Amino acid sequence: MDTRPVFxxxxxxxxLHRLVYILFLLQRVLLQMLQREVSLVNTTIVIAIIIVFxxxxxxxxxxxxxxxxxxxxxxxxxxxxxxSILIGFIQIQDGSEVCVIALPLLFMLDFFLTMGIVDKSKLxxxxxxxxxxxxxxxxxxxxxxxxxxWLLLLFDVLIILVIIxxxxxxxxxxxxxxxxxxxxxxxxxxDVIEKNEKILRMQEKVKKTNEQLTLQKVDLQKANSLIQxxxxxxxxxxxxxxxxxxxxxxxxxxxxxTDAIMVVKQLSFCGVxxxxxxxxxxxxxxxxxxxxxxxxxxxxxxxxxxxxxxVNDDIMELTLYDEDTNQVPFLQNVNINSVYIxxxxxxxxxxxxxxxxxxxxxxxxxxxxxxDAIITQYDIAIHNARIYAEMxxxxxxxxxxxxxxxxxFNELFATEMQRVIEEDTHMSVALFDIDKFKSVxxxxxxxxxxxxxxxxxFVTENCIEKYNGFVCRYGGEEFVVALPNMKLEAAYxxxxxxxxxxxxxxxKYNEFEIPISVSIGLTSYPEICKRQDELLKRADxxxxxxxxHGRHQINVDDGSIESI
Length: 564
Known about the structure:
This protein is an alpha+beta fold and 564 residues long. It folds into three domains: 189 residues, no CATH class; 148 residues, 2-Layer Sandwich (Beta-Lactamase); 160 residues, Alpha-Beta Plaits (2-Layer Sandwich), CATH 3.30.70.270.
């Protein structure tokens, strides 16, 4: 039996008992004062018993003995017995029937409550325990005190006991019904709770499953993103490889590579610097892509310096983050938090610089395989471009002087003439010959003559390329200069500069100093020469005219020369 309700009721009943005890004492005192026939001894005994009840209850209550159900049961039963004694020997004699009945009734009810009666069989035994002593007491009084009408009191007591018994019986019966209903309702509630718990467990499982699915979804999204990025990288690499296999133009390849990097990786900038001579190129190459407008010129001007510093310090690779990016000159006061710099090199030597950057933090700490593959492809491209340039040089360049040979000159000349005709512009051509070159060979030997030829080729190419012209060794000691988009007057100024430069040269060979002199013929299309197929011919006529008329001079075509 759950005793917690018993403890709570009994602790609350202590307050009721205090009130009853006080009223009982007042009633007894008033009775003693108003009815002189009331026995003082009886009053003293009643007050003493009430004080004992009150004192014991207070002690039990203060010492927490009311938390012990057995202690409460014994105490209440003792109270029932003592109150029965009051009925038989004290109260009735003083004519206080109401108090006679009230006090034992109070204790009997408390006793039944402490016994926790929940079935009818216990009700009979507990009623006998409480009512038996009272009935027995009255029966004894009837036998030994016949002058008093104890029989009437017996019937009063019996009526009280019957009422208490049957009320308790009905109470138990009602309690059983209520308990059954409560049990039924409780069972239903338990079923509902159990179902709810199952639902909650199912919801928890569903929640966990959803969380797992969410995590899996996130993982799948990450995996899908990685796959998509990998696919983009592979497609970009495949496209770059395809482009490399189809082209030897390193400038276009650089543009293709930087475009692919910017599209796939969404960077703030990407730059490639190729130094002069890396693939027989005459000038350094720059390809720079950036989403930050003011960075282009800063990057371009800084790359050669960064390249030289890293090569001199033997630093082949450098990664910078956050504040460290300010070490790069062009990134000061720019929102760039990740920078990667790589010196480009083949097995033979370094040839350039690769640099990328972005405002995202920690961007180049991992997943660098794409950039490594790009740089490897760049190495392949530069190797192929160098081989191609060497082959082109062998096919297009004169073996002795290193300038264009006649075959390649004819290709260039035909292409430029076609453009000149289409754009309705001008083309000036100069053809010159070394004066008395045969005597140089006869006097100093052919090796000395070769040195003269190389010196003339070097000086001529340097001078003419400044004006976007091109030259070739036309044959033997003859050279041709072509100046696209140049009228005769402008061309004459350039050729005069070239003439002065050539004729100021002195070739030292062994202990000899060999001066240089040339004869030049100059013509122009369409100012003088109206037919493009006669342009070289007329320049040749002018040159021979200069040689026949004293050498060491420039002869400008005026349209009057018809043949050599």
